[in-house]
Design brief:
single chain; 502 residues; 8-stranded mixed beta sheet; 48% helix; disordered N terminus
Length: 502
């Protein structure tokens, strides 16, 4: 019904405007166009009111409509329509849940969960109930702390592929590293390896058609997630696939913050050095990563490959690495899965909460959890970039600094290039690494994937890396930060106004 009303009103406005362009030359065009736009915005505003959104989000939209009617109209169609996600992704959600429950039942829980202690047990149980994903104690992980380490390992493992290569990325560039990976994939297809490549239609909108055609002509399958034909009328425009996944032969996987592009190797003059974190996974937990990819592939193509050929092959049996849990979250989920796990990590911490996020626009729950943790005497730290790549988000994030600093949170700005890592570390023993930012979009709109690590060597490596990052960062002091000029404060507050929509 909302689709029909929206399309009808849009057509009415366009037809009316065209009519006056052809027939009205005495000023009536401006009056009647304004009248139509006003009526349209009143209907939209009333519709938002009846949707019972978060009050702050509702008020934000109404203020935008009043202050910037035309811009608000466009912005709403691109980012604001709150189509019922359970309707859009109903089929995907139930199929994913059934499949994950089946695999979870087969894997079961290892008795070693009981040896982890009460805190990890609670997190493992929560993650399993929300994400339908078992914890694995036979999985090896290794942290990759920059683009050079990440892509060199990816290239090495791709060249070893014998059966299949599955890739899922938000951004793919047709540049040097993108071209190198393309050539390797084409070569592997020639060797008989099945290559399936899922890329987000919005994140990779600049990707050259020739890049896609070369892979397809070679025999690889390359599919856009959420393709857009008429963006203003597309009810899925706002729900994007932000995941970064590679699965090779069902036994090796990669997830983390790096997309495919030269900037992630520090070769973009605008950003210079690029600090990011990725994870290589070998063993049992790769099966969960494979499931996430295969379900996304099925949603995009209606082709299913949920068979032992892809789910039970080549899983080496590793021991002594701690617990590893792969969790996918998105608008198809019944719960805000990853945000809920983050909230539990923060509120159950006993000593410390360390966070690194390039985009920090928390909702009230996460913000309050961080402040309460700091006020309780915990060592709470936030690492963010000093230099922005998305200015609205950057300035909005800084408006949260005063209240965080006042509660005792220590904030550090990374000085050596751009910091893009997405990390949470709790009590030096449990950690999250993946694609999820601490912002509204990652929590509610994007498809994301994170690895949760319990007392693994990789969790300890993340602790060490975080300490090294702090050494090249400048701590934000509340007295100095409060001296920002009025113009900057005004800009930040304006961006903060938009934060419920970011």
């Amino acid at each position: 019904m909302k689709n029909i009303v929206g399309i009808g009103l849009l057509i009415l406005m366009l037809v009316s405007t065209w009519h006056f362009l052809l027939n009205d030359v005495d000023g009536g065009l401006i009056f009647y166009s304004s009248l139509i736009l006003t009526i349209f915005l009143v209907i939209i505003g009333f519709n938002i009111f009846l949707e019972n959104r978060d009050p702050i989000q509702t008020i934000t939209w109404l203020v935008i409509f009043c202050a910037f009617p035309f811009i608000g109209f466009i912005f709403y169609f691109l980012f604001g329509r709150n189509f019922r996600k359970d309707r859009i992704f109903r089929k995907k959600y139930f199929l994913d849940k059934q499949t994950f429950v089946k695999i979870s039942g087969e894997a079961g829980y290892n008795e070693r969960i009981m040896e982890m202690g009460e805190h990890p047990q609670q997190l493992i149980t929560l993650a399993n109930r929300l994400g339908n994903s078992p914890v694995s104690f036979t999985t090896e992980t290794r942290v990759l702390r920059n683009g050079e380490e990440t892509f060199s390992n990816i290239i090495e493992e791709l060249k070893k592929a014998r059966h299949h290569i599955h890739l899922e990325y938000y951004i793919v560039r047709d540049d040097r590293i993108g071209g190198l990976l393309k050539d390797i994939l084409i070569q592997k297809v020639k060797e008989g390896v099945k290559v399936r490549f899922l890329y987000d239609a919005v994140g990779s909108w600049k990707l050259a058609r020739s890049y896609i055609d070369e892979l397809k002509n070679a025999g690889a399958e390359m599919v856009a997630f959420g393709p857009l034909h008429l963006p203003l009328l597309n009810n899925k425009f706002n729900f994007r696939n932000h995941r970064k996944i590679i699965v090779i032969d069902g036994s090796v996987g990669f997830i983390g913050g790096l997309n495919i592009g030269d900037e992630y190797l520090g070769q973009d003059q605008k950003f210079g050095s690029w600090r990011d974190t990725h994870l290589i996974i070998k063993g049992e937990a790769v099966r969960t990563l494979q499931l996430i990819f295969l379900q996304d592939w099925y949603y995009s193509t209606n082709n299913s490959f949920l068979s032992d050929e892809y789910l039970m092959t080549g899983m080496p049996n590793h021991h002594g690495y701690g617990g590893v849990q792969l969790i996918g979250g998105g608008p198809d989920s019944e719960w805000t899965i990853i945000k809920s796990i983050f909230f539990k990590m923060i509120t159950s911490a006993e000593k410390s909460v360390w966070i690194a996020s390039p985009y920090f626009v928390p909702d009230d729950n996460i913000l309050q959890a961080l402040k309460v943790a700091a006020l309780s005497g915990l060592d709470v730290r936030l690492l963010v970039p000093k230099n922005p790549d998305k200015r609205i988000v950057f300035h909005a994030s800084r408006t949260y600094f005063p209240e965080l600093l006042a509660s005792g949170v220590r904030i550090f700005q990374y000085n050596e290039g751009f910091m893009h890592s997405k990390i949470i570390i709790v009590d030096d023993q449990m950690a999250s690494i993946g694609t999820t930012n601490i912002d509204m979009r990652s929590f509610h709109l994007n498809f994301e994937v994170n690895a949760f690590l319990y007392r693994t060597e990789s969790a300890q490596q993340l602790v060490n890396d975080y300490m090294e990052d702090i050494k090249v960062s400048k701590e934000v002091e509340i007295d100095e930060f409060s001296k920002r000029n009025f113009g900057l404060k005004l800009l930040e507050s304006t961006c903060r106004l938009l934060s419920p929509l970011l």
